[in-house]
Amino acid sequence: MGIKVDLEKCIGCSLCVRACAQSAIQIIEKKAKIDLEKCNLCSACVEACKKYSAISITKDVAENGIDISQFKNVAVFIEQREGKISGVSYEMLGEGRKLADGLGEKLIAVLLGNKMQDQANDLVKYGADKVYYVDGPDVARFSDDTYAHVVSDFINKEKPAIFLAGATAVGRSFIPKVAAKVYGGLVADCTKLEIDPEKKLLLGTRPAFGGNLMATIICPHHRPQMATVRHKVMKQAVRDESRNGEVVLVSASSTGAVERTKIIDIVKEVESTVNITEADIIVSGGRGMQKPEKFSLIKDLAEALGGAVGASRAAVDAGWIPYSHQVGQTGKTVCPKLYVACGISGSVQHMAGMQSSDYIIAINKDPDADIFQIANLGIVGDALEVLPALTAAFKERLGK
Amino acid sequence: MNIVVCIKQVPGTTKVKINPETGTLIRDGVEAVVNPFDEYAIEEALRIREKVGGVVKVITMGPPQAETALRSAIAMGADEAYLISDRAFAGSDTWATSYTVSRGIQTLGKVDLIICGKQAIDGDTAQVGPGVAEMLGLPYVAWVRKVEEITDSHIRVERLMEEGYDVVEMPLPGLITVVKEINTPRMASLKGKMKAKSAQINIINASSMQVDMARLGLKGSPTQVLRSFVPERKTGGEKIKDELPVMVDKLKSTILDLGIVK
After folding, report:
1. B209: pLDDT confidence band, cut at 50, 70 and 90?
2. Which end of chain B has a smaller Cβ tally under 10 Å, C or N?
3. B145: nearest Cα among B118, B111, B169
C-alpha cells in the first residue's frame, strides 16, 4: 500500500504540487517528491497528473470476509416528522428508483413510524417495490439508539447493496452509527449519485473544503454502499397510481432496541414558517442591512415571494436573527432554486453554504463585492432601497 | 469528571483561494489551525470542568505536526494532550478514523464525557463523532447547542434541529457533538501559551492500542476517493447599475421567469 511517483514519466510540471491539499509534494531536481508523513492518500495529485500518469496509488485488496455478491437492491430511508413524510424522502425515492432501474434491481423504502400504515402503502405509488414498515410508539419520533438499531437490523436481514438517506439533522445524526455497526462505506452529503456501468459501483460525489473541492467516492469491497444526500438536489418521485408493490409490517417492539437517550421536549423556534434547508426560495440578509429594524425588509420580501429567511454570519452575530437562519460554513448549507443575497459581501464561508443554489441574485452597493462573482444577476444598489420597492412590486402583482 | 475532547487539525480556510488560471486550491501561506467547531468543544469542556471539576484531555489523530493543534488546546486550558499517530493510519476514511480514535480513547482510562465539534471544515462529513460513540458503545447526542444540566450520572442538552431544538437527556458516560451556537471560545492566555510550549504530548501509536490491524488506514477503510476535482465556478452573470425602477423591473421579471413564485 502506498503512493509512488514514476520518475521516468514525471516532467516536474508541479501540477501535483498545486493540487495537493496537504502541501505534501515538492519539486526537487525537476521531479515530484511526496512527503509520506504529510500525504493522506487523497488521490488529488493522481487526478492532476492524468496527462502524464506519473503518480499512482496502490492498495492491498481488503480481506474483510464480506461476500458482496449477497447484497442487492437499493434501499432508502424515509424520514417522517410527526407522522408527515418529509420532502427529502420523495427525493430519495426518485433517485433510488433511477439507481435501482440502472442496476435492474428493486427499490426498498424503509419507514419507521407509529400508525402510518396508509403512508407506508402510499410509498409504493412513489416508486418503492417493497416497503419495510416498522410500526410502534417506540419509533414514532427520532431517537439515535433505536433508529440505528432498527435500520442496522434491516440491513443485516435484507442485505441491500445501496442504502440512501437524506442529509438532514436526523439522517446525519444516526446514519453514521449504522455505518459503524455494519462496517458499511458511508459518503456524507452527496450532491450527485451515479452507477459505474462496468463495475456496478455507486459513485457518490460530494463537496469538501466548504465546496471548494469535489470528491467522487466509491465503496468497492464493503456493503452496503451508503450515502446521505443533500436536500433539493435530486428530483422528487412522481406519484403513479398504477404502481404495485409489497408492504412488510414489522412491529417495533420485536426489534429489541434499547434507547438510552430520552427526549424531554421538542421546541420549534423558526421565525418564519419555512425551513431554510427545504425552501425553494431564500432571501438572505447581511451586514449591509445596517440595523435590526431594517432586517425586517428581508422578511417582507421573503413573505411576498413565499420563501424563507436566511442570514450571513455578520447578521446573526449582530443579533438580528437567530442562528438557525445562518447560511454558510458554520451555519446551514442550502441549495434553493433562488437565493437572493442582500447586503452580503460574499465571504468564502458564506458562499460555501449557498453557491450550489440554482439561481443567485445579489444586491449590494459595492460593485466589487465578491458575491457578484457567483451571482447570475447582480444589482449594484442599496438593498435598503431596492428591497421595499421589489416587495411592493410583488405585493401589487398578487393583489395584496 | 474525566472529559475527552476530540479535535482535528485543518487548514485555516479563510485564506483558501482558487488559482483562476489552473483552477486549483492555492495553499501557500495557509496555516494549520484547530478545526473551528472543535474550539467550541474545547471551550465547553473547560466550562464543565470549571463547574463540576475534573480533567480535560484533548486527543487528535494525525501526522506528527498535528501536535501544534494539541498545544493550542493546552493554551486554552486543557490539561493533557494525546496524539494518535502512526503510518499505519494513513488513508483512513471516516470509518477507520472512528475506529482508530475510539481505540485511542480506550487507552485513556475512565472517561465520563466525550465532546467533538459537529464536523471538521475540511472534510465536512460529521461522521467521526457518531462513529466513535458507536464503536465505544456509548450513548450520543449530535448538534448540541446548550448543556442545560450535567451531573456525574447524566447530562441534559439542547439538540439543534432544522426547525428548532430538542431537549434530550442521556446517561453518562456518553458523547456529544457541539455546534457553534453553544459558546464563544476563549482566547489563550499568556500563561496558557507558556504552558503549551513545554506541555508533554503523549503519543499513541498502533502498537500501544488494542486494534485489529486490518481495520486501520487505507486497508481498513470501506470508502476510497476515486477522484477529486475543483468544481466549475459559477462565473458572474449580468451586473446592472441603473435607476431604481429599472433595476426593480429587471429583478421582478427575472424572478417571475424562474417560474417558482406562486
Report:
1. very high
2. C
3. B118
User: Alpha-carbon distance A66 to A68, whole Å?
Assistant: 6
Closest by Cβ to A176, choosing from B121, B127, B168: B127
Residue A140 contacts residue A114 (beta carbons within 8 Å): yes
3-state secondary structure B197-259: HHCCEEEECHHHCCCCHHHCCCCCCCCEEEEEECCCCCCCCEEECCCHHHHHHHHHHHHHHCC
User: For residue B86, what is the nearest residue in chain A, using CA coordinates?
Assistant: A37
Average pLDDT over residues A165-189: 96
| Residue the block writes with cell 419555512 | A274
Domains of chain B, each with CATH number or no CATH: 2-215 (3.40.50.620)
Rg value, chain A, Cα: 24
Q: Hey, what domains does chain A have and what are their CATH numbers?
A: 2-58 (3.30.70.20), 68-255 (3.40.50.620), 281-397 (3.40.50.1220)
Say whether residue A323 is in contact with chain B using an 8 A CB cutoff. yes
Residues 6+ apart with CB under 8 A from B9: B32, B33, B34, B35, B60, B62, B65, B66, B68, B69
pLDDT of residue B15: 45
Element of type H or E holding A217: strand A213-218
The pTM of this model reads: 0.84
Give Cβ neighbours of residue B243 (< 8 Å, ≥ 6 apart): none
CA–CA dist B44, B184 (Å, integer): 9
CA distance B119 to A51: 35
Whether B79 contacts chain A with CB within 8 A? no
- A180 near B134, Cβ under 8 Å? yes
- Across the interface, whether the CB atoms of A210 and B124 are under 8 A apart is answered yes
Q: CB distance from A272 to chain B under 8 Å?
A: no
A177, A144 Cβ separation under 8 angstroms: yes
Scan residues 221-260 of A and list those with Cβ closer than 8 Å to B.
221-222, 260
Residue indicated by cell numbers 504529510: A38
Q: Tell me how close the Cα of A390 comes to any Cα of chain B, in angstroms.
A: 6
Name residue, grid cell 431544538: B165
The size of the A-B interface in CB pairs under 8 A is 326
Helix (H/G/I), strand (E/B), else coil: A13: coil
| Candidates B14, B139, B165; nearest CB to A269 | B165
Interface check for A14 against chain B (CB to CB < 8 A): the answer is: no
| CA angle centred on B209, ends B206 and B211, rounded to 5° | 80
B250 at A interface, C-beta within 8 A:
yes
> Bridge-partner residues for B84, per DSSP?
B61, B204
What would the pLDDT profile of A79-100 be if each residue is shown by its tens digit? 999 999 998 999 999 999 999 9
Those residues whose C-beta lies under 8 Å from the C-beta of residue A327, and which sit 6 or more positions away, are A276, A282, A284, A310, A311, A312, A333, A334, A350, A353, A354
Is A361 in contact with B163 (Cβ distance < 8 A)? Answer: no
Tell me if B236 and A21 make a contact (CB, 8 A cut-off).
no
Test A177 with B140 for CB contact under 8 angstroms: yes
- As a whole number of angstroms, the distance between CA A394 and CA A301 comes to 8
**Tens of pLDDT, residues A108-162:** 999 999 999 999 999 999 999 999 999 999 999 999 999 999 999 999 999 999 9
Chain B residues within an 8 Å CB radius of A199 = none
